[in-house]
Amino acid sequence: MSVVGDGTERGDAGVDEPGWEVDPDDEPGAAVVAAVGRQIKAWREAAGMRAAEFGTAMGYSEDLIYKVEGGRRIPRPEFMDGADGVLGAEGKLAAMKADIAEVRYPKKIRELAKLERAAVELLTYSNNSVEGLLQTSEYARALFAMRQPAYPQEEIERAVAARMARQAIFERSPAPTLGFVLEEVALRRPLGGRMVLRRQLEHLLVVGELRNVTIQVMPMDRVEHAGIDGGIQLLKFKDGTAVGRSDGAFGGRPVSDPKQIWILESRTSMVRAQALNPWESRAFIEQVLGET
Known about the structure:
This protein has about 290 residues and is an alpha/beta fold. The chain is about 45% helix and about 15% strand. Strand 1 (about 1-5) and strand 2 (about 10) form a beta hairpin. Helix 2 packs across helix 3 (about 60-70), helix 7 (about 135-145) packs across helix 8 and helix 10 (about 195-205) runs antiparallel to helix 12. Mean pLDDT is about 90; it is low at about 1-20.
């Protein structure tokens, strides 16, 4: 078996779906994928097709068909569309794309995205790189490619896709209040190359124009810095509750106790006060972009 440039595996007969293996520790996700696999198998058998014939008709290998039907591979949307047409399911298999979309990404990321979808206010301070919700896909891909031990290419693409999916928060209605504080060094370090950085800076300027978004920059010349212990993320919900996490507090664990939330709120407020205001920050980003 070989791997081509787009990460698609090619077997001896047909093409393996460039999807992702199921995490056995993700029980809810594994259950959904297994249920979808059983439905595909049932429709294939009802159509009187062998796995090899179905694979040929789909343009995929027989091995891939068995993986999908056995709940060991998460099928992509185009696979479900193709299976629906080949097996004459009249939209019943294609309709299951929504179920699969919920489990395509790692459990930890799904849980974070669920919280972000429910939040009415999100405040973050990022210290080493541009905050994930603000990243372009190529910037995110460069970051994941730098991880050590090295990620397999399919895991890099899975991580990038999950990060981009979280950015649906910018399209929510009613729009949540979103506040970001970024370190100056993150805006100057050319991760992925200078053109990747340039496009990332341009993206920040576009997102910063949204009325519900504020982007601030923490300059390197500050002699006081409330976020020196690490990044902070704080999410508030319409019922008055909140959840937060900070690298430098409570062992880095997510917290929701009001007293702990108050500590994170205090740090976040001070970080925002010490950073450049949004208008100064925009001018600063434009300046860095001109120098990059």
